Amino acid sequence: MFDQLIVSVTDGMLIGVVYGLAAMGLTLIFGVMNVINLAHGPIMALGMFGVYLCYTVLGLNPFVGLIIVA
Predict the structure, then answer these.
(1) Residue 28 confidence (pLDDT)
(2) Residue 45: Cβ within 10 Å count
(3) Exposed, middle or buried, 48 (CB in 10 Å: 0-12/13-18/19+)?
């Protein structure tokens, strides 16, 4: 029971970090250029798909896949 709580809290914090980074990127672009650029979502999805492919096809650790995709 306690293990599941720790996993749930960790997952929630990590997804919050992802949302926060996306929000900071949108805010930075809008603040500098005064243009609403909605390309952050597709670029993030493409990067996550690349990490997923590295994990499933190549059998790499997701953190190593993150470095490769970045």
Answers:
(1) 92
(2) 10
(3) middle
Classify 61 as helix, strand or coil.
coil
* Other beta carbons within 10 Å of 52: 13
- Cα–Cα distance for residue pair 63/33, rounded to 1 Å: 32
pLDDT digits (tens, 9 = 90+) for 13-65: 999 998 998 899 889 999 999 988 888 889 889 999 999 999 999 999 999 99
Name the token pair of 23: 């929000």
For the chain, where are the alpha helices, taking DSSP H only?
Answer: 2-33, 40-56, 62-69
Distances (CA, A) of 42 to 8, 37, 60: 26, 11, 23
